[in-house]
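Hey,
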Amino acid sequence: MATRHQARRAVVGLLYAYDLGNDGIEKFSEEILESDKIRNKQREFSLRLFQGTVENLERIDKEIAKHLESWDYKDVGKVEKAILRLGTYEILIEGTERPIIINEAVELAKELADEKSPQFINGVLDAVGK
């Protein structure tokens, strides 16, 4: 059975594909989750996170952009953006505790992004929703 961390990792992949312009990724999200062995409650969790993030993208992007000190949002890498979007959604809309989400996001950044990304993501998400 997949863990919540694995489910979030799959959601980051879906958000990454969505950001690349694959708007139709939603049609294939169930198959993608199945291929990652994300099933049952974790699949429901993943789909809720993905769909919720996409539905609230404008609000999420505005919130993230507010906390980028010396960055232009369009210059943030696509993997980092996907992690930030998911984390921001969970903090602002799902109401998940900030320390849990920051820890998850940092771990995802260590796995999926470059070595400077965990610190960057930590700083931005720490400021989100304060």
